[in-house]
Structure formats: structure tokens, C-alpha cells
Automatic annotation (TrEMBL), chains A, B:
It comes from the Bacteria. It comes from Duganella flavida. FMN binds at residues 58, 89, 139, 143, 214. Gene3D superfamilies: Luciferase-like domain (3.20.20.30). It is an enzyme of class 1 (oxidoreductase). Keywords: Flavoprotein, FMN, Monooxygenase, Oxidoreductase. Coiled coil: none annotated. Its EC number is 1.14.-.-. One of its GO terms (molecular function) is monooxygenase activity. Pfam families: Bac_luciferase. The keyword Flavoprotein applies. The lineage of its organism: Bacteria, Pseudomonadati, Pseudomonadota, Betaproteobacteria, Burkholderiales. This is NtaA/DmoA family FMN-dependent monooxygenase. Residues 21-377 form the Luciferase-like domain.
Length: 424, 424
């Protein structure tokens, strides 16, 4: 069982309404208070197409629109699906490791081994203000805490042997105490005795995912991640990132194939190039300037652009904190390199937010994916639907069969856990 | 829509294996690592019988056996059911209010208004040791924190108006900002800005449940709870508790019917008295003395009884902390009143752990429930199955129809939310 190393790993990065900043204004997007059934139907479609996983980002503050919380949502999706992996985000900055370890272990167990944890740190003031901090936690401190947090969580996931609950009813306990380990962790940030009170799942432990772009983020990912999500705008940069991560992974004493690098892919797919262009143009025309400015402002380090002329250049920006520096740099490079106005810049990121973006036919999208895969830029992709449900439907109906025809993607699941789908 | 005040509220208190200390040794009990499908099938049975809710207790340390974590489990159950209420426990001692508010709001929204939060404080050393504390938090501090925690959580649940997401797509935002409130809470224990990033559910907000037996616990419940779970061994004590809670509720300026008092009910049901007795005897014969001693030791304030003769009297006990004092008192009264040995005492609590216990036919169980209901001891019951699945099956198949024949329980759901089922 498991994945074929000559095939892509593909996840669907699910976002309320879709990833385009104007997705909620698209005629086919729902505005229901409860988006569960929309997500459920989309995830079932992704499962019929044999995707490795669905992925939900998170923020512990209101950003954009209210939605569902990832762990509760993924647990409900676990009961609504059979095979697809379920990756959710939980911050190490404002949680306790026992709680995160336990909730992901529980999702992993009830889904029969399909859970993944996207480990993040939180760097914005709105999030800090919901957890009694006036200021966000400094970058270096957040990463030191994150590193120790990961150590505690994975240690707790190791509490139970796989067969610890296979006991005789004539015994004294419903588990074998010799197959149970306490943790007794005492570190700088945490003291956690253990053991975890959730048994081990069929995949051993949840898959650990990360998305750090900064130096410290890459270093943490190289030491701890099994999947790295990343925003890469073009092939050359993606290749540099890919080889940098694999080099760091080897330096940490791990095998390069033990980490899957999966850039985001924002693709607008049509049966013809004209149809794809028209779909994209429809979304671009729906961008509200305030929403475009707000998105751009967030991505360059929470800088307020509302005083600057829309059709003028991006102003000189104050240096932002390390965690957002790589994204800020990417955007200022883009604006200067192509001499873009503020409006042109927010239009450029309104869909993919700096991720790899393709607008075209299934053949064109598959060509690009194949090139990145074969040229050492990606082990797979995290597909970002422009608007739900149509954008994901198009990708599943058109691009997945094209990848399957090329032998680049599975036509049926061969394993049953997320770890098996990813070949980890 | 809603409940009939002349009818009982009934929840099923779900416990891995069942409530009897030897339930896991019962021949029909499963020992699977993943108990999800067992819980799912049982909860679906409870829903077919139109129960108000299922309820899961919790501990943030290993006690008894590993199981699933309540919020993830209830979310998976939400996707597996349509109408039954879903009540889970989360401690105020080791969580952050933003996280608890958000996860319960998300469960409430994705279940279309069926969530309930059992607010507890944590008082044991094993739990403290998983959250970096060498000692549990003192009783008074825990309750002061719990009171403020409740204030923050319910404040966050009030972030969104019911129609806040009913907007035109021509607007600037996918919600109406005039229908959104920040919290800006600054108290002794928490500073939380808000708003919550989960929209309001059809029942407005999750139902708040509590189970405090101590003075401070009752006071907190009277001010904040909508349902009070309680352990009451006999009618007179249950009546005293019931009237005490209702009196306190009125003193807080609330209507007495705004709080439902629901004692636990441990019932072993047979088609004849002999069958019920035999079922109970089968479980009692499975008690392992070590397990019986450990259960008793936990319930009298974590006191180690292993050095005392099983067939001798209960020793003089050191005073325990306030949170466990009412349970300790209940058990020492019972032992002294009936001159019980240690073995007899643990056998007495091995099933119901001090809760109202009935062994008999459906008529006998229904008679007792009716008496408590009509004599001012209970608004309903939290049914504790001796062992799963048979114990709950018997109660649903035999006792529920008997209560329905008497007009004491609904024959179909009239509402769709937990709040409507409970008539709150």
C-alpha cells in the first residue's frame, strides 16, 4: 500500500467562499451562516477524485468572514467521508500542547488514521488581543515555543503502543500498562506529564504539516514537518525553495523524501483558454477596491494603504516583522519588477495571493504542474479553488483526469491513511 | 415548537464501555481502539427514541481508559445525526475562553443548533501535571476563573446577530458590520477583544450545563447554568438539592424554570425483576477488587485504600478539598449509616457511583422516575448505561415506551434545537 513516488500528491486548500478575494460576490457562492454542507459536498467530490487530503487554514481572530473552527469541522467531515486526508491548522502560540495533541489524536483515531496537523505560530495583533496579550509574541520566542510545542505533541502521540488495547477481559485493566508511556516533559515553555488519554490510530500519529517561509520557519520545517506548504509565484523561486528545504532536511539527518514540498496552486480552469480567461475576468471584475486594499495591506505586514492613490505606485514600506518579511519582499519585488500600481498589485494577488497561478485549459494546468514536478520544484500541490463550488469542480472534472491520463495521479486510493496516501 | 413542561427531559450520559466499573469486562462490550462507531450507533439509537441529548464527561488526563476527546467526537456525531442534542464537557481551568467559545459555537453551527457546553473546573493533580502546574488550582481560584470564563464565553457567543450574514453581494463585506459586536473584556483573569469568528447558530447559543455540588458550585450553577446535572442517591436528598438550586436561581433574578435539574440515573432494566437482578449481578461479579478500590479511592478524595482490609470498615478520612467534599461526605454517610465494609461500599458505587440507582422492570424504573419528577426532585434525568451497548438498548426499548404510554415523554421531536428540546 501507499503512494507511487512518480505521482503527485494533491490536496485541496478549502476556504470559505473560495480563495479569490471577491469569491463571496460570485453568483454561485453561497452566503449561508452554516457552511458545513457546502464543505461536506466539496470534500466528498475531492474524495471521489482520490485527492490526498483537504486542508483548512485558521486564524484565532476574525479575518474576512466568520467560518467554522477547523478541528470541529474536520471531525464532522471525518464522519462524512471514508478515505481522504483531513489536515487542519492549530497555532502553537495560544494553545496548550496537551490539548492540541489530544484533539488531533482524537480526529486521527475517529477517522481511522486520516488526520494532519498544520503547525503554525500566530503573529497578528487581532489574534493576540483574543488571548490577553496586548502585543503579539516576538518572532524568535514564537518559534522557540513552537519547537518545544512540537516536541511535546509528538511525544504525547507516542503514549500508546498500537496493540495496547488488545487485552483479555480477565485482566485488571482495559489496556496493557506495559504498552503505555508517560512523557514527563520539563522544558523552558512547558511541563507536561502525560500520557495522552487517546489511543494510537492506524497511521501511528497525525501527519505534521508546516508552511514557514522565513529562515527560522524553514529551519523548524526541516526539523519537524512531513509536508511543507508554500507560496511560490514562479518556477525558479520554487526550485530554489524546494532544494533549500531538501538540503536543510538532509542536514537534520532526515531523508529528503521524508518531507513533501507542496506549493499552493491557484488555477482557473476552462474547457478552452477563452472560457478560463472569462471565468477569471468575472472574478477580477467583482473586486471591491476596499477589499483589494485590505488584502494587500495585510500581506505587506498590516500596513494601511487607504491614504495612497489606487493608480499610483506602492509607497516605501516600513520593515515588517520577520514572520511576514518574506511575503512583503515577494510583493515589493513584484510591484517594482513590473512597475505595478497599487490597484494592479492587488488585482495580481486577489486570486492566488502570491501563489503559483495558472489560468487556462486542463492541458495547460497539467503541463505546468508536470513541469514543476519534474523540474524539482514540487512533490505535489495544494489546490486553491478560486470560488466554491465551481472552481474546485472544474479542477476535479478537468485537470485530475488529464493528470491521470499522464500517469501523474492515482486513479484509486491504494492506502487507507493520510500517511499512506502521501507515501510517508 | 419546544418541549412540554409536563414531560421529562432525558439525556444519555455516554461513557466508554458504560458506567459500571466492570463494564469493559462484560462479554458484549467492545475493546476497540477506535470507539467512534460504537458511540455513533448508540447515539443514533438514542435519537430514534427522541432523547433530548447525549452527554460526554471529560478529563484532561488518563482516567480509566483512553477514549475520544469530546469536541471532536461530538462534531463527528453531529454529522451522523439530525436532531439529538450534543453536550460536551470542557474545563475552564486549563483552557482559554476564546478557544472554548469558538469550538462550541462551531459545533453548534455545524449541528444546526444542537450543542451544549458542560462547564467544569479541574481539581485533580494528574490533570494539573499535563498543563505545567505542580499543584491543582485552589478551589476558590478555580471558581472565580470559571465565573469570568463563562462571562467571556457567553459574551463572545453574542458577537453576531442572527441575520448578520444576510447581505447583498453588491456590498463591500460578506456580513453586515452593524450586526457584529466586539467584546473588549478586561477582567481579573482574561482580556479578550473579540468578536468571535463563528456566526450564530439557529438556537442562538449553546446550552450551558453544570454539575457543581459544593456551595460555590451551586452558586455558580444558579447564576449561569441552564441545565444542572447532579448525583443524588435518594428522593429526599434530591428534593433538597432541587429546591436549593431553584431557590438560588430565583435569588439570582432568574425564573425557576430557566434551569433544568437532571440527576443521574443508573438503571439496570429487565423484562422481569429477576432478569434485571441477574444482569446487575453479572456486572457486580466482574468487579476486580483493585478496580473497585481505585474507584472508591478517587471518589473519597484521591485517598489510597490499598493498605486496608477489604472486609473491614472504611477508615477515618482526612478532609479533602472543597470540590470533592460533597462526594466524600455522601460516601462516608452511606458507609456509616449502613455499616458497610470497604468491599460492600465499592460494590455499592461500582455502578452508579452514588447516583440514583434502580434495578428492575421498565414499570419500576418509570415509577421511580415519575415519583422524582412529580415530587419536586427532578425536571428530567441523565441516564447512565451500565454497559454499552445493551444497557442503553434496554432503557430505550423498555423504559422510554413506558414513559411515553404515561404521557411523560415525547413520541416525536417537536423542535429541532437542543434549546427547543429542553424547553429553554
Amino acid at each position: 500500500m501507499g503512494s507511487n513516488p512518480k505521482q503527485l500528491s494533491i490536496a485541496a486548500f478549502m476556504m470559505r467562499y473560495g480563495h479569490h478575494v471577491a469569491a463571496w460576490r460570485h453568483p454561485e457562492t453561497d452566503l449561508l451562516s452554516n457552511p458545513f454542507k457546502v464543505f461536506r459536498d466539496q470534500v466528498r467530490s475531492a474524495e471521489r477524485a482520490c485527492l490526498d487530503a483537504v486542508f483548512f487554514a485558521d486564524s484565532v481572530a476574525l479575518t474576512g468572514a466568520p467560518s467554522l473552527e477547523p478541528l470541529t469541522l474536520l471531525s464532522a467531515l471525518a464522519a462524512s467521508t471514508e478515505r481522504i486526508g483531513l489536515i487542519g491548522t492549530a497555532t502553537t502560540t495560544y494553545n496548550e500542547p496537551y490539548t492540541v495533541a489530544r484533539q488531533f489524536a482524537s480526529l486521527d483515531l475517529l477517522s481511522d488514521g486520516r488526520a494532519g496537523w498544520n503547525l503554525v505560530t500566530s503573529d497578528n495583533a487581532a489574534e493576540a488581543a483574543n488571548f490577553g496579550r496586548d502585543q503579539h509574541v516576538a518572532h524568535a520566542d514564537r518559534y522557540a515555543r513552537a519547537r518545544e510545542f512540537h516536541q511535546v505533541v509528538t511525544g504525547l502521540w507516542n503514549s500508546w503502543d498500537p496493540d495496547a488495547l488488545e487485552v483479555e477481559k480477565s485482566g485488571a485493566l482495559p489496556y496493557d500498562p506495559a504498552k503505555l508511556r508517560k512523557l514527563n516533559h520539563r522544558g523552558e515553555h512547558f511541563a507536561v506529564a502525560g500520557p495522552l488519554n487517546v489511543a494510537r490510530s492506524p497511521q501511528g500519529r497525525p501527519v505534521v504539516v508546516q508552511a514557514g517561509g522565513s529562515e527560522t520557519g524553514r529551519d523548524l520545517a526541516a526539523g519537524t514537518a512531513e509536508v511543507v506548504f508554500t507560496a511560490q509565484p514562479a518556477l525558479a523561486k520554487a526550485q530554489a525553495f524546494y532544494s533549500d528545504i531538501k538540503r536543510r532536511v538532509v542536514e537534520k539527518g532526515r531523508k529528503p523524501e521524508s518531507v513533501k514540498v507542496m506549493p499552493g496552486l491557484f488555477a482557473v480552469v476552462g474547457r478552452t483558454q477563452e472560457e478560463a480567461d472569462a471565468k477569471f475576468a468575472q472574478l477580477q471584475a467583482l473586486i471591491e477596491p476596499k477589499a483589494g486594499l485590505a488584502l494587500l495591506g495585510r500581506m505587506i505586514g498590516n500596513f494601511d494603504l487607504s491614504g495612497y492613490p489606487l493608480d499610483g505606485p506602492l509607497p516605501e514600506l516600513p520593515p515588517t516583522q520577520d514572520g511576514q518579511r518574506s511575503r512583503q519582499q515577494l510583493l515589493t519585488d513584484l510591484a517594482q519588477g513590473e512597475n505595478l500600481t497599487i490597484r494592479q498589485l492587488y488585482e495580481r494577488i486577489a486570486g492566488g495571493r502570491g501563489h503559483f497561478t495558472v489560468v487556462g485549459t486542463a492541458e495547460k494546468v497539467a503541463d505546468q504542474m508536470q513541469e514543476w514536478f519534474e523540474q524539482g520544484a514540487a512533490d505535489g500541490f495544494n489546490f486553491m479553488s478560486p470560488a466554491l463550488p465551481g472552481g474546485l469542480d472544474d479542477f476535479l472534472a478537468l485537470v485530475i483526469p488529464e493528470l491521470q491520463r499522464r500517469g501523474l495521479f492515482r486513479t484509486s486510493y491504494t492506502g487507507s491513511t493520510l500517511r499512506e496516501h502521501l507515501g510517508l
